[in-house]
Write a structure and sequence with these properties.
Length: 239
C-alpha cells in the first residue's frame, strides 16, 4: 500500500485530497495544526472503511523544529502533498513583520523543509511531490501581497526541486483558480463573487474534487515532472 502525507489535510481542499487518495488505495497521513478535532473525525471515517489506513500528525508548520520532528516520524512515503496554506489580506500599508513571517514560513519555508526532511524516504520509493500553488502566483491579487509572493516562490520551488531531485523524485504543482470561497477576514461580498465568476470562461467555480483528481493524476504520471497545471476554468486566459 502506498503512503501519502497531506499537509493541511483536515478540511476543505486538503480533506478532499485525502479522501481521493484513500479511495485509490493510499494509506493517508493527515497533517493538521489547529483542526485536530476535524482531522480525528476524518481519520475515523477512513479507518472505518479500511482498517489502519489513516493516521494524524499534528504540527505547527511555522515552527521548523516541529517540521523536523514530523519528518523524523515518517519511515516510508510515496507522495507528499504540500497543501497547507494561510490566506488573508496583507496590503503594503497594513502588513506587519509578523504577517510576513507567518505567511512566508507556512506557504513557502515549510514545503521546502518538509521536502528536505522527507527526500530520502521518497527517493527509496521513487516517490513524488505535488505542491498546491495558486493562479495568483502569476496574477497578483490586490491587497494580498505577501500571499502572492509566497505562492510565486512555491512555484519556483516546484521547478527547482524537480531538477534537483530528479531522477529519484518527481515534483509538480497545481494552481487552483476559484474552487471554494474564502473564509473569515478574506470573505467576499456577493457582488465580488459574481464579478469573479464573470471572469471565468466556464462561468462557474471548480470543486475540491477537481484538485484532488489532478493530484492523483500527477502521482500516477511517471513521466511528468517540473510542471504546473492551472485548474481555473480558463481564468488565466483572461489577462
Amino acid at each position: 500500500m502506498k503512503t501519502a502525507l497531506i499537509s493541511g489535510g483536515a478540511a476543505r481542499i486538503g480533506a478532499q485530497i485525502v479522501r481521493t487518495l484513500h479511495e485509490n488505495g493510499y494509506k493517508v497521513i493527515i497533517h493538521c495544526h489547529q483542526s485536530e478535532e476535524v482531522a480525528q473525525t476524518l481519520c475515523h471515517e477512513l479507518n472505518s472503511k479500511r482498517n489502519d489506513s489513516a493516521q494524524i500528525v499534528v504540527a505547527d508548520l511555522g515552527d521548523n523544529k516541529a517540521i523536523k520532528k514530523l519528518t523524523q516520524t515518517i519511515k516510508s512515503l510515496d507522495l507528499l502533498v504540500n497543501n497547507a496554506s494561510v490566506f488573508y489580506p496583507t496590503s503594503i500599508k497594513n502588513s506587519t513583520i509578523e504577517d510576513w513571517d507567518k505567511t512566508i514560513n507556512i506557504n513557502l519555508r515549510a514545503p521546502f523543509f518538509l521536502v528536505r526532511g522527507l527526500s530520502k524516504v521518497l527517493a527509496v520509493n521513487q516517490g513524488s511531490i505535488v505542491n498546491i500553488i495558486d493562479i495568483h502566483s502569476e496574477r497578483p491579487l490586490k491587497k494580498f501581497s505577501i500571499y502572492n509572493i509566497s505562492k510565486a516562490g512555491l512555484k519556483m520551488l516546484t521547478k527547482t526541486l524537480a531538477k534537483e531531485l530528479a531522477p529519484d523524485i518527481r515534483v509538480n504543482g497545481i494552481s487552483p483558480g476559484s474552487i471554494l470561497w474564502p473564509q473569515n477576514e478574506s470573505q467576499l461580498s456577493n457582488k465580488e463573487k459574481m464579478m469573479m465568476i464573470d471572469r471565468i470562461p466556464l462561468k462557474r467555480q471548480g470543486s475540491p474534487n477537481d484538485i484532488s483528481e489532478a493530484v492523483l493524476f500527477l502521482a500516477n504520471s511517471k513521466y511528468i515532472t517540473g510542471q504546473i497545471i492551472n485548474i481555473d476554468g480558463g481564468r488565466s486566459l483572461n489577462q
